[in-house]
Amino acid sequence: MKQLLWAGILTVGLISVAMADVTLYAGQPAEEAGVTLRSWGSGTIEDSTETTFVGSRSIKVLTRGILSGGWIVFNTPRDLRADLNAPDKVIRFTLRFPGVSGAAAGGSGGLAGFGGGSRGGPSFGGEAGGPRGGPGFGGEAGGPQQPGGFGSPAAGGGQTTTPTLRELRLVFETSDGKRTETLLPLQNLRTDESGWQSVSLPLSVITELRDTNGQITKLGLFGDTTGVFYIGEIRTLSETGPLQGYMAIQNTFGSVFTSRSQSRLSIASGDELIFFGVAEGVSMPVEYRWSFGDDPSQVDGVGNVVRRRFPKRGTYTVHLTIADPYGNRPPATAKIEIQVN
User: Fold this and answer.
1) Which residue of 58, 177, 220, 281 has the lowest C-beta tally within 10 Å?
2) Residue 288, domain extent
3) Model confidence over 105-159: pLDDT tens digits?
4) Of the residues 210, 238, 266, which one is the last residue of a structural domain?
């Protein structure tokens, strides 16, 4: 089958060079996609119509550990040679885990009643007219609440559960007979309104793959524990430019503020705040680093959700750094002043 290509443009100085993104799978029936699905160990892999991202199919994988899952065998090798040495090129997997609600649906399973987002991350209901996969705030504190609310039961949100898998073991086999393994982290994924999550990995960090001929003939997918997931799409694309993001803050009354709309927040002495890091425009896992002092380089907390109690009066500056763990993209930063009365 003819390989699907999505055209992109890479600009270097005054010279524009055409770079082709490669689609490895895009929701077709296996025969039409030019692939054969082979179960491995006690796992299974099969065509599915239960849920779709694009096209009319997805690939359903049952994994029972790092040695049980399935193989996608490409009848015609997928050529990644042009992408392997480009620092901006990633391979992106669009996945869905049973039981994970979409962002627009809200959900009551998240931290402090937020839910709706992946792994307890903030989705805050659904923002009317918001972009696909966006954070979907249900209105700033003190402002009108949009449909979907903050994912509370009163707002009609459904229950959200956390995927059991923490990472995928990926095995690439190339036409020169070489195998390359890597791990794909599944933490802090953003869920769109349909429940699909996109996660990417820079091809440049899969160093052993660069020692192959880049012609992918087989792709193995295995989880770190027992679990089920669906694959909606696998493709390469460019992710360039600095990261973008902000922080959201929930106070003791359940009101939500963001660093995009406010520079200072006043609270009472002894109040505890919940801080959420939100990365935008990126599908790869990122690192969230928090500083609660004057020096933003001092790391006082990590993770996309942290709690902090402020027992003494004064003014505190909270800094958030959203960093690329592979060092390919400049970080995003955000800050807000906390006035403790």
Assistant:
1) 177
2) 241-341
3) 333 333 333 333 333 344 443 333 333 333 444 333 333 322 233 333 333 333 3
4) 238
